Amino acid sequence: MTCVEATTRPASAHAGERAGTVPLALSGLLLIAVCYGLARFAYGLFVPVFRTEFALDAATVGAIASSSYVGYCVAIVASTAAAARWGARAVAVAAGLCAATGTGLIALAANTTVLTIGVVVAGSSTGLASPPLAQAIAHRVPAGRADRVQTVVNAGTGLGVLVSGPVALLLADTWRWAWAAFGLAALGVTVAVAVTVPRAIASRPVGGGTLPARPRAWRRRLGTARLLAAAVVLGAGSSAVWTFGRDVVSSAGASELVSTGSWIVLGAAGLLGALAGDAVARLGLARAWSAAMLLVAAATLALGLAASTTVAVFAGAAVFGGVYIALSGMLLLWGTRVFPDRPVLGVGAGFLLLALGQALGAPLLGLLADHLSLAGAFLAATALLVLGAAVRPRPEQR
C-alpha cells in the first residue's frame, strides 16, 4: 500500500486494519514467546540440570547452545525465502510446529545426542518465526504504527522467559514435564497463528512509498555492513548470559530460588523491551543503540563478577532482560530502515548475524570458562558489548 492509497481509503478500511492489528500483534507476541523464550532460551535456564543429567562440561554446554544458533541461521535463511514465496502464515505455522517438535524431543531425551537434536530443532523455530511476522506486520499494520507493533511482538521473548522460570521452579525435580508443557504451549499458539496471521506474500514498504520492481542487491545497500557487524557483536556478547547466566549464579552458591528467580526477573523486565520503538522515536536509533549496548554490558559484568551477591544478581538480570529485548527490537527496526522496500530481508539479515554471533560466542565462552573461569568468560563478553556500542547506524537511518 502506497502513501497515496493510505490517504484515499475509506474510514471503514482503516477501522478494519486497526481491528486486525490487535489479534495479529497478540498471536505474534505469543509465537515469539514460545519460540524464543521457551524453545530457545529456556535451554540456559536448565543448564545446571542438564549438566548433572548428561554429565556435561562448560565447553559441551556451549557447543550444544551453538548448534541451536546454527539451526537458527539455516532456518532464518529458509524462512526469508519461504515467506516471500508461500506467505507469512505458512511459515509462522511451521515455526510453531518446529518449536513443539524440538521441545518434545528435549522432554524425551535419553542421551546427549537426542538432547542436542531437540535443542537444534527447538532453536530453529526462532529463525522461522521472525521474518514472516515482520512481513505480516508490514503488510497489515498502518505505517505509522508498524514500529511500535514490531517491537511489541519482539518483546514476546521476555514473556516466554518469564513463564519458563516458574515452570522450572515448580517442576525442578521433573524437568521433562516442564519441556512437555512447553511443547503443548507451542501447539496451542500454532493454532492461534494459523487463524490470525495473514497470508501476506508481498509486503509493502515500511513508512510508505512505492515498491521498486528490482531492489538493489543487499550487499550494495548503504548501512548493511554496520547492521551486520552490530548484530554479530550483540549476539556474541549476549551469549554469555543466555547460555551461562543461571549457571554462573548457581556456581556462586546461590539457592535454587535465587538462581531461578533471577531468570524470572530477566523475563519480566524483558517485557519492557516493547518500549524500544518509543525509545527510538525519542532518542533516535543511534543514541538509543549505543546507550542500550553500554547498559547490557554493565548487566553482563554484574552477573559475571558479583554472582554471589543477590542484589547484584537480580539487578543485573533485570537490566539485561529489558535492555537485550529492546536491542533486538532496535535491530529489527534498523533492518527495516536499511531495507525499507523489503523489510523481511532486513529483519532476516540482522537476526541471522545475531544468531551467528551467538553461535560463535557460546562455544568460545564455554572454552574460556573451562580454561579460565566463568567470571573471565563474562568479562570477555562485557568487553565485546562495550565495543559494540560504537557501531551505529548511518545518519540517514537513525
Structure description:
It is found in: Cell membrane. Pfam families: MFS_4. This is MFS transporter. It is a multi-pass membrane protein. Keywords: Cell membrane, Membrane, Transmembrane, Transmembrane helix. The longest helix has 30 residues. Helices cover 81% and strands 0% of the residues. The N terminus is likely disordered. The two termini are 24 Å apart. The chain has a single domain, classed as MFS general substrate transporter like domains (Growth Hormone, Chain: A, Up-down Bundle). It is built from 17 helices and no strands. 60% of the residues are buried. It is mainly alpha-helical and 398 residues long. α2 packs parallel to α8, α5 runs antiparallel to α16 and α6 packs antiparallel against α10.
